[in-house]
Design a protein that fits this description.
five-stranded mixed β-barrel; Pur_Nuc_Pase_Ino/Guo-sp; about 25% strand; about 30% helix; purine salvage; Nucleoside_phosphorylase_d; purine-nucleoside phosphorylase activity; transferase; alpha/beta; binds 1-O-phosphono-alpha-D-ribofuranose
């Protein structure tokens, strides 16, 4: 039922990749950051960088999407050890869902305790504007409804339990921290919180699909993040995620708007400095069990 190609990587494969990385750098990251489309600039805030191209990392998939550089960056943010994915993997690139989430298991084996995920998304909530930052409080996993869940297949208890809870997927303390930090930075006017819905892509949604998703309770729609969140929670990492609303989902048959990736990347560029400040300030204030000083 689960052909080998779709089964992802074994615990030993993940361990081998993590050990390979650990052997190349003395940095031991506590925070893992994933940059969404056009948001790779987040990695630039890291000091004392050690950078790996995905194509040089054993077992790692390769980035194929414009706006996803395909580099894994180790470094520090105000002294705190971090790892940052400059580019992620998506279902529509043709990877099985178990493979696009491999980096979350590598993060775990490297010692990461907290994951911060970012993405570009289309706004379904009519109160949202392009450029808003939405703190994700919950998700709707559409591919999961059809059985395409990254945890489908044999479960290795060394990562986590067979039936992980997802009602607490998005850490509430970290959501509050983001609100506090956002307010201190003067970002409250463009910060929202809401529900993110993942679809398979790569085609953008039809008008009828956007209307349906909105009725179902989604505030933003995208093609990523949720799979990573599920795998990160399965192996016990704390998760914070946010969407940059890069475009308004088209909900109206009279509209001339057309979703396009260029607009997505452009909005990412415009908000990248603010996102960088928000993430940096959050990272410095997240408490960890390990004393990294
Ligand atoms: O979710 P991220 O990786 O930010 O990318 C978003 O942007 C792309 C569409 O423009 C899709 O890949 C969508 O998921």
């Amino acid at each position: 039922m689960f052909p080998k190609a779709a089964a992802g990587y074994s615990y030993e494969d993940c361990r081998a990749t993590a050990d390979w990385l650990l052997a190349q750098t003395s940095l031991r990251p506590l925070v893992g950051i994933v940059c969404g489309s056009g948001l790779g600039g987040l990695a630039e805030a890291l000091k004392d960088q050690v950078v790996f191209n995905y194509k040089d990392i054993p077992n790692f998939p390769h980035s194929t999407v414009n706006g996803h550089a395909g580099r894994l960056v180790f470094g520090t943010l105000k002294g705190k050890p971090c790892i940052c994915m400059q580019g992620r993997f998506h279902l529509y690139e043709g990877y099985p869902v178990q493979k696009i989430t491999l980096p979350m298991r590598i993060f775990k084996l490297l010692g990461v305790e907290t994951v911060i995920l970012t993405n570009a998304a289309g706004g379904l909530n009519q109160d949202y504007k392009v450029g808003d930052i939405m703190i994700i409080k919950d998700h709707i996993n559409m591919p999961g409804f059809a059985g395409n869940n990254p945890l489908a297949g044999p479960n290795d208890e060394r990562f986590g339990v067979r039936f992980p809870c997802m009602s607490d997927a998005y850490d509430r303390e970290l959501q509050q921290l983001a609100q506090d930090v956002g307010a201190e930075l003067g970002y409250s006017d463009f910060m929202r919180e809401g529900v993110y819905c993942v679809l398979g892509g790569p085609s953008f949604e039809t008008i009828a699909e956007c209307r349906m998703l909105h009725k179902l309770g989604a505030d933003a729609v995208g093609m990523s993040t949720v799979h990573e969140v599920i795998v990160a929670r399965h192996c016990g990492m704390r998760v914070f995620a946010m969407s940059l609303i890069t475009n308004q989902a088209v909900m109206d048959y009279d509209s001339e708007e057309k979703a396009n990736h260029e607009e997505v990347l452009q909005t990412g560029e415009q908000r990248s400095k603010q996102l960088e400040r928000l993430v940096s300030a959050m990272v410095t204030r997240i408490e960890h069990n390990t004393n990294y000083a």
